[in-house]
Design goal:
It contains 14 helices and no strands. By secondary structure, the protein is mostly helical.
Length: 288
Amino acid sequence: MSDAVFIPRFRRASDDSPLMRLVLIAVALGGLALLVVMPLVVVIGQALAQGWGAAIASLASHDAWSAIRLTLLITAIAVPLNAAFGIAAAWFITKFDFRGKAFLITLIDLPFSVSPVVAGLCIVLLFGANSTLGGILIAHGHPVVFAVPGIVLATVFVTFPFVARELIPVMIEQGRAEEEAALTLGASGWRVFASVTLPNIRWALLYGTLLCTARAMGEFGTVAVVSGKIRGQTATMPITIEMLYNEYLSVAAFSMAGLLTCLALITLTLKTGLELRHADALAATRRH
C-alpha cells in the first residue's frame, strides 16, 4: 500500500455559511443605522420640529449668516493653502532622498496625534496678548487670537496633513522615471509638473482637497479655543451650533447643524464620485 499524501484544503474567506454572511451584514447595517442614519434623522427632525418656516427664519438671522460666511471664508483660505503645502511636501518627500525623511513625515502627521484643544492652546500661548509676538501684533492692529487670522491658523494646522497624505503614496507609486525623462528632453520644472506630475496625481489631489474641506468646515476644538466665541464676529458654524444649543434654541441649533450636515453630504457625494471616476480611469489605463 502506497502512502497517501494528505493535502490540506484551505478555506477561502468567501466560504462562510449563508447564516454567517447574514449576521455580518446585519451587524454592519445595524452599526451604520445607529451611528449615521439615526443621528441624521434626529437632526432633521429637530430642525423641522416647528416647520420649514421656523428653520429657514433661524438660518436667515444675522448671527447665522455671519457664521456661515465666516465658515466658508475660513475654508476658502485654508484649503488652497493646504493644497499648495501638500503638493510641495509630497514632491519634496517623494522626489528627493535626504536624511530625516521619516521624521518629516512624522511631523506632517502630527495634527492627527495632537488634541485639537492642545493645538489651540499652543496658538493662544504663542500669539496671545500676554506673549511677546502677540503683543507686538496687537500693538500694530493685527491681532491673531480671538480674530479671523487665529481661526485660519488653527484650521490650517488641523487640516494640513490630508492633502499630503493622499499625494505621497500616489507619487511614490508613480516614481521618478517620467519626470526625469521630461527633464532630459529639456522641459522646465514647471512644465514637468504641469504636464507629467499633475495629471498623474489629479484624482488624489481632488480627493485630499475634499477631505480637507470637510474637516475645515466642521472643525470645533481648535477653533473654540482661539476664536473667543464672539457672536457675529468669530463664531463659525460649529461654534454657533453649540452656543444656540446651550441657550435652548433647539430649532436654530439643529437647523444650523442640518445645513452643516448637507454640506458634509455634498462633500461625501463628490468624494464618492471621484473614487468611481478614479477607478474607471485606472481600469481604462490598465486595459490599454
